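go over my protein:
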Amino acid sequence: MGRTTIGALCAGYVNSGNLGIPIAAYVLGDASLVAPVLLFQVVIVTPVALTVLDLTGTGDKGTVWQRLLTPLRNPIAVGSLTGVVVSAAGWKVPGPVMQPLAMIGDMSVPAALLVFGMSLRGSAAPAGGSTAGWSCCRWR
C-alpha cells in the first residue's frame, strides 16, 4: 500500500506541478489555470496520502484521536490550509513579506522550462526519427 501511495504522489506532482505549470504558462498563457489542481493536491490528496502512509507503516499508531489528527502533523498540509484560510478571509500579506515571494514565483516558470530543456541534453533522439530537428545539440 505504501509503495502505491508514493507512486501515485510522484505521478500527480510531476504531472500537475513540474510539467503543468510551465506548459500552462507557455501554451495557455496563464499559469494560474493549474492552481485548482495544485490546491486540490496539496489540501486534500497530500494529507490523505500521508495519513495512509503513517497508518500503514510499522509501529504504534496511537489513539483514535491521534490517527484522526495525523494530517495536521504535516507542515505542507498546515501551510496550505493556512493559505486557504488567509485567502478566504481576504487578508493581505504585507508588501515587504510578499515581494521576495513574488520574485521567487516569477522565476519559477522560466527556471522550470530551462531545467526541462537541460534535462534533454545528452538524451537520445526520438526513436525512428531523424536528428534534423535536434541540430542544436551534439549527440554522442
Q: What stands out?
A: Helices lie at 2-18, 20-28, 35-56, 64-68, 75-89, 95-120. The chain has six helices and no strands. The radius of gyration is 20 Å.
